[in-house]
Amino acid sequence: ELGPDVPRVFLADGDALCLAARRLVEILDALGEAFPRLQRVGIYANARDVLAKSDEELAALRRRKLKIAYLGLESGDDETLAAVDKGATVAEIVEAVRRLRAAGIGTSVMVLIGLAGRERSLTHARRSAEAINRMQPSYTALLTYTPTPGSPLYERVENGDFVLPGPLESIEEIREFVRGVECATY
């Protein structure tokens, strides 16, 4: 049962930031009315949807308690992003996070361990750390890549054309990433 004391809401089930700013303002206003003690709204976002919004629109969302956006960097390596059809470049993702931060919206950025495969593992780790340093997100999460049917790399993994790092190699990738991170991020 939900009551008026709800302090946090997460707009889940995909990239809600794809909605027009006007529609998001309506939703956030409705949440504020329904939950008078609301302190924070979180949202999934992708770089292109952030970049499509003006600074004024982002600020308007922040004023309505949109306080954190979760974005997938996945990799700081453009070659890896292209291989998985990310739909954005590293530069676009970095700019999106910077714009969210400038609007006062915190960010949690995800990096996928293993996404570049065994061959490019350490390059992926170093370039991902460099991207995190440029964007300075509030939070950084390292998640393990698991190929799923229908994903761009799934068939390549199944055919043996793409080799995922093993457990020790994944630890080395994480170590290389952590060594490269110089910004303050949780």
How do the helices and strands line up, and which of them pair or pack?
Layout: E1 8-11, H1 21-34, E2 40-44, H2 47-51, H3 55-63, E3 66-74, H4 78-83, H5 90-102, E4 106-113, H6 121-135, E5 139-144, H7 154-159, H8 167-180
Parallel strand pairs: 1-2, 2-3, 3-4, 4-5
Q: What would you say this structure looks like, in words?
A:
By secondary structure, this protein is α/β, with parallel strands linked by helices. It is 44% helix and 17% strand. The protein is built from eight helices and five strands, in the order E-H-E-H-H-E-H-H-E-H-E-H-H. The protein has helices at residues 21-34, 47-51, 55-63, 78-83, 90-102, 121-135, 154-159, 167-180, and strands spanning 8-11, 40-44, 66-74, 106-113, 139-144. It starts with 7 loop residues before the first strand and ends in a 6-residue tail after the last helix. The mean pLDDT is 95.
Question: What are the main properties of this structure?
Answer:
186 residues; alpha/beta; elongated
Beta-strand share of residues: 15-25%
Using only CA atoms, what is the Rg? 18 Å
N-to-C CA distance: 32 Å
What is the helix fraction of residues, given as a range?
40-55%
Largest sheet: 5 strands, parallel
* Biggest sheet strand line-up: 1-2-3-4-5
Stretches where pLDDT falls below 50 for ≥5 residues? none
Question: What is the residue-mean pLDDT, rounded to a whole number?
Answer: 95
- Total DSSP helices: 8
Secondary-structure element series: EHEHHEHHEHEHH
Total count of strands:
5
By helix and strand content, what is the structural category? alpha/beta
